[in-house]
Amino acid sequence: MKLTAALILLIAITGCEKSSTKGMSKTDTTKTEFPAGQLSYLALGDSYTIGEAVAQSSCFPQQLSARLSGQGLKVAAPKIIAKTGWTTNELQAGIAAEALPAKYDIVTLLIGVNNQYRGNSVAVYRAEFKELLQTAVAFAGGNKKHVFVVSIPDWGATPFGKQSGRGTESIAKEIDAFNAVNKEETLAAGISYTDITPGSKNAATDGSLVASDGLHPSGNMYKNWVTLLAPSILKAYQ
């Protein structure tokens, strides 16, 4: 994406290897039983969720659905409510504008990078993120075990971030502040939290983790996210 587009989006900045699992430990010979039918999946977020600058099949919700299905938990193609550049309040408005079914079996939430990019208040982010958590739980039929939050990646490690003039250390500190909030609120609500931020920093030295726009994650990075996230979802259904 062009630089100006990236700036507007925010970073809107805002994924499947074949794997075999029978849900057994070394001493357990009982096969894990997963639901027989397809599970519905709602992915909420921003450009990181839609997979800006990568093929649709490479975005993390699509890769996650494929990975889970390959490991015995049959998941339908995700319903994605996300847009490049969305902040927390814009995501909430986007959700309200959609005529969505009342319940999904799996809900993921990744939001906040645009709040940080625009210099928005961390306190306001906390309030709006808590509302989004409640919205996600409602879509999961009130089952917190079926909601999964993903941390905000560090876009400062990307080529765009390095050239932004905002300082990679400064960006990292701000991202950490927003992630401290979403982690605290997620865990306090008894919801699963997956920290992909440390791995996102590898983009500083590994170009294969960055999309062609120099800002967003590549399919390879999204694959890494799925590797971290999938076990929590599989565990929730065991």
Description:
- The chain is α/β, with parallel strands linked by helices and 238 residues long.
- The chain is 43% helix and 8% strand.
- The protein contains ten helices and five strands.
- The protein has helices spanning 3-9, 47-50, 60-70, 88-96, 113-117, 122-139, 159-163, 168-188, 197-200, 219-236, and strands at residues 41-45, 79-82, 106-109, 147-150, 192-194.
- It has a five-stranded parallel sheet with strand order 2-1-3-4-5, with helices on both faces.
- The longest helix is centred in the last third of the chain and has 21 residues, at 168-188.
- The radius of gyration is 17 Å and the shape is globular.
- The N and C termini lie far apart (41 Å).
- This is Lysophospholipase L1.
- Residues 43-222 form the SGNH hydrolase-type esterase domain.
Number of extended strands: 5
Q: Strand-and-helix sequence, N→C?
A: HEHHEHEHHEHHEHH
Number of H/I helices? 10
Helix-strand makeup class: alpha/beta
Would you identify the CATH H-level superfamily?
SGNH hydrolase
* CATH architecture classification name: 3-Layer(aba) Sandwich
Strand ordering within the main sheet: 2-1-3-4-5
In percent terms, what proportion of residues is strand? 5-15%
Share in helix: 40-55%
Q: What does the radius of gyration come to?
A: 17 Å
Low-pLDDT sequence parts: 1-31
Largest sheet: 5 strands, parallel
CA distance, first residue to last residue: 41 Å
CATH top level label: Alpha Beta
User: Which descriptor suits the 3D outline?
Assistant: globular
CATH topology: Rossmann fold
Give the total of domains. 1
Q: Mean pLDDT, nearest integer?
A: 89
